[in-house]
Amino acid sequence: MSGGAVREGGCACGRTRYRITGEPIMVHHCLCCQCQQQTGSTGVVNGFWESDRVELLSGELAEFCVPGGSGEPHTIARCKDCGTAVFSYYGRLGRLMTGVRTGCLDEPGSITPDVTIFTAEAMPWVRFDGDIPQFEGYYDPREVLPEESLDRLRALGQRRKAGEG
């Protein structure tokens, strides 16, 4: 794993634990109808890291595949014992990038979303932080993310094109 900040987290029952090294590439606060349905809530906050920066320390995960907004599969990894959603994998980058449900971090407040997306699908009473860029649908990462994050995304894209993940 790469160096940098270290965060840990886990599921509701405590059997599944993980560690992440480094800062996320990006953090999405997604309010789309699919995220609402999959979480039973108003949406989800996912931090995205290269998968080699995410280490499962204990527990077993069960995976469930649902349709993603892009039309490609979205795999949700849940604690096998309690069902807490911990990770997500999206079709575009496969297993090369892990979406971590930031609410499962030991210190979830250590992560701030880079963007709030799909605001057009938000529950009518949801309020937004004016300091976080908002988009009615998806967004162009080149307009929001720092160059370092874009470089990390490009590197994952090249690995995917080379047949990894």
**What's the SSE pattern?**
EEEHEEEEEEEH
Unreliable segments of 5+ consecutive residues: none
Portion of residues in helices? 10-25%
Ends distance: 17 Å
Biggest beta sheet summary? 7 strands, mixed
Strand content: 25-35%
Secondary structure category: alpha+beta
Largest beta sheet: strand ordering? 6-7-8-9-4-3-10
Quickly count the helices.
2
Mean pLDDT: 93
Shape: globular
What is the rounded Rg? 15 Å
The overall strand count is 10
What's this, in brief?
The chain is α+β, with helices and mostly antiparallel strands.
Walk me through what this model shows:
By secondary structure, the protein is an alpha+beta fold. The chain has helices spanning 33-39, 147-161, and strands spanning 6-10, 17-21, 26-30, 44-50, 54-58, 61-67, 73-79, 85-90, 97-101, 115-117. The longest helix has 15 residues, at 147-161. It starts with 5 loop residues before the first strand and ends with a helix. The model has no long low-confidence stretch (mean pLDDT 93).
